[in-house]
Target: Carotene biosynthesis associated membrane protein
Amino acid sequence: MDRRAIEGRLETLVSENRFTIAVVFPVVGALLLLGSAEGWVPEPLAFQPTMVLFGTAVMRLPLIVGVLPLLDRRGAIGLLALTGYAYGIELVGVHTGLPYGDFAYLIELGPMLFGSVPLGLPVFFFPLVLNSYLLVVLLAGDRARSTPVRLLGTLGMVLAMDLVLDPGAVGLGFWAYAEGGAYYGVPASNYAGWVLSGAVSVWIFDWMLDGTALLDRLARTPFMLDDLVSFVILWGGINLYFGHLVPAILAVLLGLGLARTDRFDTAIRPTLLGRRLDWR
Model:
């Protein structure tokens, strides 16, 4: 079976199971994670690493399948560079406290690299950047032709997503900061670190993706941002449970941004087709 046939089968799988992937999985995931944190889930299943990694991978499937046809040799080089960078900066962060602040993983989120960083880190990290990138491209329209608008807008969106993610993860006990933090247990240094790590990641994604091909793919692939739907449901619900009002409101705002893109019908958006965004 060649690559195109595999991509076609994966598209069919995601298209026929959009609601299950984008809604059912994050709802069940939120319940299991909260049940694990509160002691309602029996010990063998509480924060079970394989379940956590599998559930995350399933929710990422629409994004992965959406981007897969766009990955040429340049894209593969970009992904390899980004993977090495992600592992490197996370290992430095865990062992030195730079650039995010002094923190440690308290739960094994799947197999751990060198016993300190999740081996599945790209599955957790890349989608924050790529979902932000795609959402900004859709919302900015023709303004996305401007490199500063595209990159700074994406970096701002990445920070907004982390303002939702980190408080929820700290509340669950995924990781903790040694000295806590004013923002629901998260220090300002974490977000300063995200400016650095996010900026590099955004630049790499921008370098590796062809603008015109990306727009055409977005126009023909309604499920491409379904992973962001999962993010809003999962982390919005978790923050709401813990009483984290600001992150919950930010999750709602992300959801409203998604609604403006009309990503969840089956029609092709003709306003996207035929546009050129030559930002390589």
